[in-house]
Amino acid sequence: MLRFITPFCGLRASVPGSRSSSKNHCSHNLRPVPQCTARKSPFASKRSQSKRAAGTRILTTMSGISYDDDNIFKKIVEGTIPCYKIFETEHALAFLDAFPMTRGHSLLIPKASGFATVMDMPEDVAANVLKELPRLAKAVHEAMGSDGVNIIQNNGGAAGQEVFHAHFHVIPRFKDDGLVKLAGASGGMIAQEDALSIQSLIQGKL
Active site at which residues (predicted)? Predict the structure, then answer.
């Protein structure tokens, strides 16, 4: 069965390892589930039933997608939840996904909080995080001996985001790994009239 890359990015009920003070684990999860069953995920139901900690703030962002001040990635940055850290800079943190799609699946996140999606990140924050992406992708690719690499960034629930702290997936790909390959085109060329209209709409929002 083919496995889909994008549906989930959530939290398991328990953190791997027995010591919460250890900095060797992370409990982030990108579950490979068929698209048609995504809404029935047990993780989605656990999250919907869970209660937020007292004092948790839900922040409004520029994208209109709320930032949960109690999210797991913020806790990883703060050190209250451990992770398998690959490297850390003043502005960014890279670590292994604890429930990887393929061997070597890694994550890159901004250490600054308050940014639910990449659309909310100021230019300087984005630049300081994104400049680390090529070296992480190169290191993952070479270390795993992969045939290719997917770099995936989900924004909003409709796009498969479930941890609302901006982050990037670096997923090494292998021939016949069973994951869906992201095609570059749908097969139908865009009509000129439609292209000009969309081009104008997007340019008007810059």
Answer: 167
CB 94 within 8 A of CB 130: no
Would you please indicate which residues are annotated as catalytic (active-site) residues? 167
Please report, in tens digits, the pLDDT of each residue of the chain (206 residues total). 444 444 334 333 333 333 333 334 444 433 333 333 232 332 232 333 333 444 456 666 667 889 989 999 999 999 999 999 999 999 999 999 988 999 999 999 999 999 999 999 999 999 999 999 999 999 999 999 999 999 999 999 999 998 999 999 999 999 999 998 877 666 789 999 999 999 999 999 99
3-class secondary-structure state, position 30: coil
- The reported pTM is 0.72
- Please indicate, yes or no, if residue 1 is contained in any of the structural domains: no
Q: Is residue 3 part of a domain?
A: no
- Domain residue limits at 34: 10-203
